[in-house]
Design the sequence.
């Protein structure tokens, strides 16, 4: 007993001839169907190429436009010829001209010999498939489709819409329970002849001729009526991308295909000479007879589809520029924004980088230049420190920085002096951890040696900017992790907030802070605020600093900020 | 996009095409082998001036990718480029001594040649210092890409210009004829690019790279555009609007995904910064035939005199397309 192949060909006929010859020479009869739209010349050449092989037949030709009945008619025709001409055939394998056998035919024959009554055909009810193109799964059985999906898409869509509006439904013949599945099957003589000699075949064919993409449903549906043992999977390795078109295999897939242990793969790029040479050669080292295992290939193509539909989070590039809120992650990784900390603490950046083990920048959005960690003039990804370049497109500046430093958390200082363009962007970014000591910008002013009139003006300006910033990050739409302390609140107990932030950044989890950064001298700060008030400015963001009740100078070295058990 | 602006774009496209038709008179055929172009051939279009030393590697690179025919306009070379090209069996050559600037930097000439010979072909439009890199270009010929694009109903393929530069002064290592220019210009900037949408034509406007970093840090809006759409399944109704930066109809510019996914894209490695650059900049400034009154070249000249090293410690050394893919400069999209 043996297996016979029905091949449906329409392009790359020389490759089809190569494969047909391969099978025929190894004792498997082949029936070749050539699309009627193929001109006479190439068809005659194919016939001539295969004329010397006694177990190859050509069957009547149908035009096989995608999604139409022609492909089913061709399969029926080919199968009929196969069953009639080659009585020794027990399994009929439907293949295409771009299929390639990955394992020696003898292994396929042996595999089928062990399963003489099994039909290999993917056959799933419409409720259970998620891969249908155009969202039409059950409706392809109940609507009419006189227009081509590829060439007359608009008419196709309008006609479907119209039928939905008037609730048109075709009657599905009794006994027909629609099933869908890959069009590449391998059926036993018994099952196939039962389908082809079905007493009501005329009526059933008439119905399926007007179903959309009948090649994915005709055999898949009928096999359920006549077969006793359906194994619902295809022996042909065939992967589809998100548009429903098959993935193509190239020379560089050779190892992957070798290891897949599948019997037949499609579709092969016709010019993949290495693949054809490797898999059609005689001296194939025999592999262990394993079950087909296309896992690796599945993963490869699943990743490709994911890249096409979701992309890499935080990447903005020439072929990925997502609209707002479609980014699938505005930035590539988590980062921390500190407002006011470097005003309250001396050398906060150095301390933070030691305590958290992350990269700590200065004011990245400072008006004079970009203050990268370590004062570098060029940073990761060859980013410039030019403020003009940064302000030309601040969003790309930040997203590039986070993208370039994937795997290393970035922290930077941000304040009311800086470019405020990105406030909404960062507030809406779930990767941002924003910590604010509100009103801390007043500390450098307090220490500055400027005229009080100037200080008052500056304080009013900065307060206004920071107020807007706070409103944004407090907004109900904000997705970032936001913590805000007033300056008064913070100096009261600085260690706890610091510990919380560090824990969240956390590459050295579990460690307690032993060294606090040195806090700026705040003696007289309450009086300073009172002076501002006296000048008619109302400082509100710092919280409550009573005049004269200066925070007691604390030692910079402390033990554990709080005890655990 | 309203009916009026769409109609305006249509008029603009017709105008460019008519202009190309008019400018055909400026071309003189020097070696016509266009009869050898077969229906499925992949074509390279290029316009050049005095690039003799680059040509052998340029032709070899694209022949190795599987390009079938070159259609080249020579704009008054006097260094033997014309004679060299006329001898190549797969090159059709035209010459023009007319103004490069007035032909919109060669775009009109190439629009005409594409209209005439590129219809229904995959056409790659590149300068002699641009080298096309696409996903899997080390294992699959360019026809694998175009077949896949055909099967996916994609008509245009983007490839951002990536400026390559050597470490040290540009003239430290002279470029020899036939040599791979990226043996010298090995480095590139991996992550300092800026992307904006052009609402009129629907394309992206990309800037950045070493040129923006060193020559245009104070005037970034003047930095040269790096967005390119060099590979198109051409139709005689199409027209390049400005170099290969954008096309009409504008649907062809929609080479990027706006809903979070990545479309497939490539890179044009730009071997501009070799020892030949200084001489070129000098000449182009004298001729004043380049974009925006050669402001770019002026900036280069000033910049090159001050600080001739484009290299910095974050410069990335070029390895292969997979590296560019990982860095996020190009993407495989759903091609696997």
Sequence:
């Amino acid at each position: 007993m043996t297996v016979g192949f029905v091949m449906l060909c329409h392009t790359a006929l020389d490759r089809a001839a190569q494969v047909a010859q391969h099978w025929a020479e190894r004792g498997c009869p082949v029936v070749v169907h050539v699309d009627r739209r193929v001109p006479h010349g190439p068809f005659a050449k194919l016939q001539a190429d295969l004329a010397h092989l006694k177990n190859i037949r050509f069957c009547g030709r149908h035009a096989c436009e995608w999604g139409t009945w022609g492909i089913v008619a061709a399969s029926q025709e080919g199968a009929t010829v196969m069953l009639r001409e080659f009585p020794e055939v027990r399994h009929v394998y439907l293949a295409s001209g771009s299929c390639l056998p990955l394992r020696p035919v003898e292994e396929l024959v042996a595999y089928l010999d062990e399963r003489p009554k099994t039909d290999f055909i993917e056959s799933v009810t419409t409720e259970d498939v998620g891969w249908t193109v155009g969202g039409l799964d059950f409706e392809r059985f109940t609507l009419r489709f006189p227009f081509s999906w590829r060439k007359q898409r608009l008419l196709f869509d309008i006609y479907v819409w119209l039928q939905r509006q008037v609730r048109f439904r075709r009657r599905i013949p009794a006994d027909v329970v629609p099933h869908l599945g890959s069009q590449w099957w391998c059926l036993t003589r018994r099952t196939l002849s039962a389908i082809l000699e079905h007493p009501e075949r005329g009526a059933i064919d008439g119905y399926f001729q007007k179903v959309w993409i009948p090649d994915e449903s005709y055999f898949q549906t009928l096999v359920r009526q006549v077969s006793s043992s359906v194994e619902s999977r295809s022996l042909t390795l065939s992967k589809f991308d998100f548009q429903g078109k098959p993935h193509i295999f190239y020379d560089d897939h050779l190892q992957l295909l070798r290891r897949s242990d599948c019997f037949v793969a499609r579709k092969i790029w016709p010019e993949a000479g290495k693949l054809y040479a490797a898999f059609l050669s005689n001296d194939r080292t025999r592999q262990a007879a394993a079950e087909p295992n296309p896992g690796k290939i599945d993963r490869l193509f699943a990743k490709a589809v994911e890249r096409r539909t979701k992309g890499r989070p935080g990447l903005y590039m020439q072929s990925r520029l997502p609209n707002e809120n479609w980014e699938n992650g505005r930035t590539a990784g988590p980062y921390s924004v500190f407002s006011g900390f470097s005003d309250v603490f001396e050398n906060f950046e150095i301390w933070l980088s030691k305590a958290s083990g992350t990269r700590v920048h200065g004011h990245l959005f400072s008006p004079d230049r970009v203050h990268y960690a370590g004062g570098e003039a060029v940073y990761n990804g060859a980013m410039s420190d030019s403020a003009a370049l940064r302000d030309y497109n601040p969003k790309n500046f930040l997203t590039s920085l986070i993208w370039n430093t994937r795997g290393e958390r970035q922290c930077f200082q941000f304040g009311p002096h800086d470019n405020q363009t990105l406030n909404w962007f960062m507030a809406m970014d779930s990767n941002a951890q924003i910590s604010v000591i509100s009103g801390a910008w007043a500390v450098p002013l307090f220490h500055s040696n400027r005229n009080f009139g100037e200080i008052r003006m500056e304080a009013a300006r900065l307060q206004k900017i920071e107020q807007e910033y706070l409103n944004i990050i407090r907004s109900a739409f904000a997705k970032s992790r936001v913590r805000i302390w007033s300056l008064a609140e913070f100096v009261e107990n600085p260690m706890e907030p610091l510990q919380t932030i560090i824990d969240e950044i956390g590459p050295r989890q579990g460690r307690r802070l032993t060294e606090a950064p040195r806090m700026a001298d705040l003696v007289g700060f309450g009086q300073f605020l009172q002076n501002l008030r006296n000048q008619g400015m109302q400082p509100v963001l710092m919280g409550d600093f009573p005049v004269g009740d200066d925070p007691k100078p604390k030692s910079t070295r402390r033990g554990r900020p709080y005890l655990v058990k | 996009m309203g009916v009026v602006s769409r109609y305006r774009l249509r008029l603009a496209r017709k105008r460019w095409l008519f202009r190309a038709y008019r400018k055909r008179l400026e071309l003189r055929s020097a070696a016509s082998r266009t009869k050898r172009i077969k229906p499925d051939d992949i074509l390279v279009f290029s316009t050049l001036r005095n690039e003799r030393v680059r040509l052998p590697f340029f032709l070899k690179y694209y022949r190795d990718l599987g390009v079938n025919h070159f259609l080249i306009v020579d704009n008054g070379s006097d260094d033997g480029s014309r004679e060299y090209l006329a001898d190549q069996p797969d090159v059709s050559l035209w010459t023009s001594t007319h103004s490069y600037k007035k032909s919109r930097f060669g775009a009109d000439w190439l629009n005409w040649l594409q209209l005439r010979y590129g219809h229904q072909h995959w056409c790659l439009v590149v300068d002699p210092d641009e080298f096309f890199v696409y996903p899997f270009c080390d294992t699959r010929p360019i026809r694998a890409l175009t077949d896949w694009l055909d099967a996916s109903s994609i008509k245009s393929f983007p490839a951002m210009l990536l400026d390559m530069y050597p470490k040290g002064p540009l003239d430290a290592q002279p470029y020899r004829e036939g040599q791979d220019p990226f043996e010298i210009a090995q480095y590139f900037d991996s992550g300092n690019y800026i992307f904006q949408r052009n609402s009129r034509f629907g394309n992206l406007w990309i800037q950045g790279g070493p040129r923006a970093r060193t020559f245009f840090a104070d005037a970034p809006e003047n930095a040269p555009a790096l967005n390119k759409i060099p590979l198109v399944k051409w139709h005689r109704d199409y027209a390049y609007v400005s170099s290969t930066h954008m096309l009409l109809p504008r649907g062809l510019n929609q080479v990027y995904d706006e809903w979070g996914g990545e479309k497939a894209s490539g890179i044009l490695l730009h071997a501009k910064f070799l020892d030949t650059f200084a001489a070129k900049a000098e000449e182009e400034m004298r001729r004043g035939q380049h974009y925006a009154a050669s402001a770019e070249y002026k900036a280069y000249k000033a910049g090159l005199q001050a600080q001739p090293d484009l290299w910095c410690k974050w410069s990335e050394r070029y390895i292969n397309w997979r590296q560019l893919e990982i860095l996020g400069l190009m993407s495989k999209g759903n091609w696997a």
Remarks:
- Chain B has one domain: 3-326.
- Residues 3-326 of chain B form one domain.
- Chain B has a mean pLDDT of 90.
- The longest helix of chain B spans residues 3-23.
